[in-house]
Amino acid sequence: MTTTTRDVAPLLYTPEEAAQALRMGRSTVYELMADGTLKFIKRGRSRRIRVTDLETFVASLATAN
Questions:
Q1: In the chain, where are the structural domains located?
Q2: Which residues make beta-bridge pairs with 48?
Q3: Please, which residues have CB within 8 angstroms of residue 13's CB and are 6 or more apart in sequence?
């Protein structure tokens, strides 16, 4: 019997993972979150960013130019 593992795309990113995905610095992502430009979810002391919110942010960059 073989077991295969499938990679599951994450639905939530940590700010560090989001920074890596966006090719931005971690502090830049925290600044974007602080000024409301990038939406996030806060649960206790943890912050997570939805994939859809990252996509919306990137789409807004394209329209800003």
A1: 12-64
A2: 41
A3: 21, 48, 49, 50, 51, 54
* List of residues 6+ apart from 2 with CB closer than 8 A: none
Tokens of 43: 């649960």
- pTM of the predicted model, to two decimals? 0.82
Quick: pLDDT tens for 42-56.
999 999 999 999 999
State the Cα–Cα distance between residues 20 and 45, nearest whole angstrom. Answer: 21
Q: How far is CA 51 from the centre of its chain?
A: 6
* Rounded Cα distance, 38 and 29, in Å: 8
Q: Which residue has the tokens 């942010």?
A: 57
Phi, psi of 18 (to 5 degrees): -65, -40
